[in-house]
Amino acid sequence: MPIDADDIRELHRFEIKTLLALERLMKRYRWVPEDVLRRRTGLSASELEYRLGHLMNLDMVKSSSVPYKGYQLVFRGFDALALHAVSRKGSVTALGCQLGVGKEAVVYEGMGLGPVALKFHRVGQQSFQTVRRSRTYMPEYRHFPWIFASSFSARQEYDALHALHGEIAVPVPVDINRNLIVMTYIHGCPVVQATLENPADVFEEVVENVRGAYALGYIHGDLSEFNVMVDGKQAWIIDWPQWVAPAHPSADEILLRDVTNLCTYFIRKYHLDISVEETLERVVG
Ligand SMILES: Nc1ncnc2c1ncn2[C@@H]1O[C@H](COP(=O)(O)OP(=O)(O)OP(=O)(O)O)[C@@H](O)[C@H]1O
Ligand SMILES: [Mg+2]
Questions:
Q1: How far apart are CA 117 and CA 123, in angstroms?
Q2: Which is higher by pLDDT, 140 or 243?
Q3: Which of 5, 32, 49, 267 is the most buried (most CB within 10 A)?
Q4: What is the CATH number of the domain that holds 230?
């Protein structure tokens, strides 16, 4: 079910309060007990029951009756808190259509000061294992690694966009809250959906951007024809949460994979006379 801006706009302040309380209490409980939630929100039993009923109808909260009556925040509730926060700040004033849904994110178009893209990161248990391996600290959300992993993923992408925009062609990051990043909207499509009139120029441009990013300390890590967008005037590189630094132990391997993906696509579809070795040389040279 897609995110509905009206549902979020119409949330009662007691419902926001309940979601916020659940978010905090999930650091301690697998299922937040009803009485603990009541104490934290200060709501009466009947008011809380009514608000939770509405939140469960919206698929923002889940309940369980064993081993005791308890509640959990789920992805849609977390998305709602993030969207509510960026709307209050004015970074987003309207939510539009869904642009894409990948393994680990849902992307919407929207409006802020101008057209924006909203990317809700949704990283689950499995990917979290990778995050955990590469970090030395333990997450706060012991029972709910997806909260930690999704926010971490959003932060990673935001940091890369922040460092790279202005230097290379990436969306400009506008705001971040929890698992959501807001960035400028690109009026184009992924290169895989385009038929390029000037593939050699586009390839050159992308390689130049990959080189620029590398020089600034960023290797994309998931470069492909799906994560390069073209708008008729220029090429953009999107989807940065899995970037690694050139000092990362697997940096060489990851960069090689990025360059190989890029070259393979342009060779296969446009028969360009390019080679992985030469391209790699240009990126790191
Ligand atoms: N800034 C943007 N402007 C316009 N469209 C965008 C923007 N960012 C993303 N999109 C659209 O959303 C789609 C998905 O975005 P993105 O590649 O960042 O995430 P994803 O591929 O879903 O994530 P994952 O790699 O985890 O599956 C893109 O293919 C593109 O069509
Ligand atoms: Mg992608």
A1: 18
A2: 243
A3: 32
A4: 1.10.510.10
pTM above 0.90, yes or no: yes
Q: Helix 13-25 to helix 45-57 angle, to the nearest 10 degrees?
A: 90
pLDDT band at 2 (very low <50, low <70, confident <90, very high): confident
- Choose one of 13, 45, 76: the last residue of a domain: 76
CA distances from 187 to 196, 200, 224 (A): 16, 21, 19
7: annotated active-site residue: no
Q: Which domain holds residue 203?
A: 189-284
Which residue type sits at 2? Answer: P
Pocket of ligand 1 (CB under 6 A): 99-100, 102-105, 107, 117, 119, 171, 183, 185-186, 190, 222, 226-227, 238-239
What confidence tier does 61 reach under pLDDT thresholds 50, 70, 90?
very high
Q: In the prediction, which pLDDT does 135 show?
A: 46
Ligand 1 centroid distance, CA of 88 (Å): 24
pLDDT in tens, 168-181: 999 999 999 999 99
Mean pLDDT of 27-39: 95
Look up residue 148 and give its two tokens: 């930690």
Residue with tokens 């987003």: 92
Which atom of ligand 1 sits closest to the CA of residue 104? Answer: 26
